Amino acid sequence: MIDHPLAGTPYETALELCVVLAAVCWVLTLLTRDHSWVDRLWSIVPAVLCLIVAVDLGFDSPRVNIMTALAVLWGLRLTYNLALKGGYRVGRQDYRWTYVREQLGAVKFQVVNLTFIAFGQIAILWLFTSPIHQAWEHAEQPLGWLDAVAAVIFLLLLLTETIADAQMWRFQQNKKRLVSEGAEVRQPFMTGGLFRFCRHPSYACEMGMWAAFYLFAVSGASHIWHWTGLGCLALVVLFLCATRVGERVSSERYPGYGAYRAAVPMFVPNPFRFGRRAGAHSNPR
Q: Which is nearest to 134 in space by CA: 280, 5, 16?
């Protein structure tokens, strides 16, 4: 056995599980040529990792229990959203992987597949859930005001993300209906609702929720900086990269997307732009 700081902790068990899952996902991508296997685990793994820690404590730590409950709620919502879009069907992989493969070529893409798509993304899942390990280490520390702040922020962002996803779902369904009827689709990409204020409200909420999750670790340990904060930073980098790829595809597909990008912030709403015509496009109903 390798001696390391996590040795003998439930989060070591979580790490071992993640290594196995990453290897399985990598093999499945080779067998099926579908590179969204990690995407299908994305909403499930954090809740499972938190449950491993909570079970180790016998559900006796209020902080760990709250963190686990929030991870489960987050996972249920995201799992439902992916299932609604058919994301669990083999072959329905994220269009961005197809685009990246075309840009890199088969050989380079397989390197990315091994290092990032399989093991890299699973590592990010493990990292942004890791604040619960800090809470486990300080399980005797009572709840404080920062825990309440973290929980409220997490739940508010979860609600906002749910609204944004519902708005996108209605837009896409209406767009499919117009196409099936042979009608003109005047607005081919989403610009209404919460998308008036930032181009990717769901991603913004995701990053905010896991930053709030880290606040539980801060509250438990009583100090701000800790290695478990690397998770939310890694998640920000991931979303920045994924968003840029997605927006490059949208810009190539939709001539008007460039104007939308110029008018509306990517993640953080700008209150001074609210109400401007550039950020108030309408959606077909």
A: 5
Q: Are 133 and 228 in contact (CB under 8 A)?
A: yes
Q: Are 205 and 161 in contact (CB under 8 A)?
A: yes
Amino acid letter, residue 125: L
Query: If pLDDT is split at 50, 70 and 90, which confidence band does 273 have?
Result: low
Q: Is 243 helix (H, G, I), strand (E, B) or coil?
A: helix
The two structure tokens encoding residue 178: 């117009």
Burial code (b: 16+ CB inside 10 Å, e: under 16) for 260-269 equals: beebbeebeb
Q: Which of 42, 44, 91 is nearest to 242 (CA)?
A: 42
CA 236/CA 226 separation, integer angstroms: 17
Rounded Cα gap, residues 183 and 121, in angstroms: 40
143's tokens: 């709840």
* Closest by Cα among 205, 89, 92, 227 to 154: 205
Q: Are 47 and 72 in contact (CB under 8 A)?
A: yes
Tens-digit pLDDT profile for residues 170-220: 999 999 999 988 888 888 999 999 999 999 999 999 999 999 999 999 999
What one-character DSSP code corresponds to residue 126?
Answer: H
Integer angstrom CA distances of residue 216 from 142, 208, 245, 284: 11, 13, 32, 42
Token digits for 10?
């439930």
How large is the C-alpha radius of gyration of the chain? 20
- pTM equals 0.90
